[in-house]
Amino acid sequence: MQKLLLASLFMTIGLQILLTQTPVLVADFNSGEEESFSAHNFNGISYKNKLFFPIFSNSLGQELGMLDGDELSVLKDISKGFWSSKPQNFTKYEGLLYFTAIDEMGSALYRTDGTSGGTQLAFRPPASNPTNKIEGLIVSKEGLLYFTREGKLYAYDNVEFKKIFDGISFDNNYCQYKDGIVFLKQHSNTFRLYEIKGMQIEELGEAGFTGSTKEVFGISPVQRGILYGIADKTNGTIHETFVYDKDEKEVYSLTENIETKKRIKFFDGEKALVWRGGEGYFATDGYKEELLYETNNTTAPFGDDIYSIAKDDKMIFQADKTSIDDFLMHTDGTSLGTKELFDIDYRLSNLLEQENFAFFATGTFNNNFAKVYYLDLNDGSYTNIYTYDVRSESASILLVGVYNGRLYYLSNHDEEVGRELYYLELDVISETEDEELSNYDIELTANSIKIKTEKNESVQLLVYNIAGVLIKQEHAYTNQAIPTTDLRGLYVFSFLIGEKVLSKKLFRI
């Protein structure tokens, strides 16, 4: 009897929980049609159980915004008055949140501890032009923070900011490598590859390139060493790929056809994802390559990038099969382990990663119906969380962050309020709970779950994954915290007290 009850309950929960969620407007921050967020600078970050992002105020301009619980506010007016500081490049380092901003004296590096008083100037690199921005905040595995400004490379070890190199600006020309960083610098008709270890820099090698206006179209560590590509930006007819062999300490050209457009994207440190126009998507370790997905499209994905998220040895990426057909792909880096997930309605939003999971939206442009998804990066399984019944115009969904069991994102579907912050619940009490248990309270923490009652009662906990498979069963008592640290993903928790059942969908990251 109990098994039949649970099976029926799970089917009902699976249908109702996944299909009945409704977007909730956090606040009409700028009352009326005026938008509070920009489609060009919106990326957020979760820090100290709060969410931080750029937000626009009618009186203060675009400044550092914060969501604390359900309260949306400007944390600090960095550029006084209506002038915007345009905070961006949020990076966690040594317990603080660093970001770039523009104040009265120009671009600078700021940091915050999550409070207004603790939001302060960290460092202002010297510059001849105060409008020249700080670029490329990146933290190495050995624990140093690097960035560039006006052709100078700086390093910070949580004690001292120090200039360590001249003539380099971070763009698409740098990446993590081993415990440090590598970057490419142009010297006339050659590109030199450098490695940063701590405050020291070593030249690894160089390669010639004959194009007129040159740019790097990708750089990534691979098993052989470092894979990178250089293109002629002016006419787009020359694209060369090179690999630095870490054992032979030499740079080799891997290009067979310089007229074929190419792109390189980081995968797992041992392999890189490579797109070649008219051929398809490949995985390469620098020695050999394997075709993952064949396409005939010759236009570079979105002009200069491959939309993707890589986690451990799995990746999702957008593949432009033809000029009009785009697919979301899942791969483990092999041909057999690569599959089409679904055809993307124009256009894919930004991709948001949380632990082993991804969030994104499709149909965000051109009068399509936007759909918001959750995806398990491990196996490629996905769920349509919500579908809008109002057609999209331009960038209708922009994902900001996952925070307190909610997916936060920007939407401009409601013309009466403009582009504002919304959320979808990822933790939802089932509408099918037993009436006798409707007053019971489920308490969640970052690491546990418990059901609260006036007196202690015997309870059985059953946990199902999104496919309905029982993955955890435990006997406990009400008012007793049950650990959930071993669970990462979307689950249905069912508490059995006698013949009564209380269930909750829980998203754990």
Structure description:
The chain is 4% helix and 52% strand. The model is unreliable at 1-20 and 428-436 (pLDDT under 50). The protein has a domain at 2-11 and 431-508: Immunoglobulin-like (Sandwich). A hairpin with a 7-residue loop joins strand 28 and strand 29. By secondary structure, it is mostly beta strands. The chain contains 1 helix and 44 strands. The strands form 11 sheets. Strands 37-44-43-40-41 form a 5-stranded antiparallel β-sheet, covered by helices on one side. A 4-stranded antiparallel β-sheet has the order 1-36-35-34, with no helix packed on it. The protein has a 4-stranded antiparallel β-sheet with strand order 2-3-4-5, with no helix packed on it. It is globular, with a radius of gyration of 25 Å.
Outline:
With 509 residues, the chain is mainly beta.
Structure summary, number of beta strands: 44
Structural class: mainly beta
Q: How is the largest sheet built, in terms of strand order?
A: 37-44-43-40-41
Question: What is the class of the domain at 2-11 and 431-508 in the CATH system?
Answer: Mainly Beta
The helix content is under 10%
Low-confidence segments, ≥5 residues, pLDDT <50?
1-20, 428-436
The CATH architecture of the domain at 2-11 and 431-508 can be named as Sandwich
CA-to-CA gap between the ends?
Answer: 34 Å
Number of helices: 1
Strand content: over 45%
Q: Largest sheet, if any?
A: 5 strands, antiparallel
